[in-house]
Amino acid sequence: MKRVTGPVALTIPSSEVLLREIEVPLVSSFQLGTLLQYEAPLYVPIPLETARLDFRVLHRDLYRARMRVQLAIIKAEAVEAALEQVRDGYLEASAIAISTRSDTWIARRPLQLPWHLKWFSKRRRRLASNIAIPLFLIIALVAAAQHWSYRVASDREGDLILAQSQAVGVEALRQKLAILNQKISFLNEVKARPSAGQITEEVARLLPDDAWLGELNINDQTLQLQGESVRATDLLRIFSASPLFANVQFEAPLTTAQGQNDQQFDITMTVK
Question: What are the chain's domains?
């Protein structure tokens, strides 16, 4: 059925309409609506939230600065019932025809819903629920994702702190291990070196019978021999042939004592 787009006036039984004539100060139409917001509770026998109101000016007394106003009071449930009938007929109401004994006047304000009813109508509530539920789910998902990411970040931060502390401990252990390795290497080197007894025994074995030793000094890996020999120059060749010694050389020139054939020698060498 084609929807009527023109204005349609509702007809509400006169039993559902309460008419009151009141007298108020002479004001403009705009000010009259504000004034009646305060005056209406004195003349409306039902709660204002359950009533629909409209008014019209019957007479203006300029001499007395007063005006007579007719106030129409309709129950909200009666207006809603009439609107439902109109909607069932695919029509749209724009006013209410209020009949009096003398005439009929068109009231439009009763169809203007109060702001709280307008904003919280069934359609708006349905629309709000259709939007609010997905929005709530989205917000909940975002909050859950943020909480999860925060937990993951906290766990990662804790793991990082633990790893850093462990790294510090590992680095300290690595340094200690390096020091121990150096000590072990040094001990191995020392252990691999010939002992003083071995050096002394090798010197005694190599020294010829015509030579005698006056002084033997062992300083780390350096061996110094001082004494006398008939053939001191042969000592360089003899000690160089030993596997324990290297870099055999005279530390000072050979000298010969007056009236003797023995040569005084001062030989240094490196102990391998």
Answer: 8-124 (3.30.1490.300), 196-271 (3.30.70.2830)
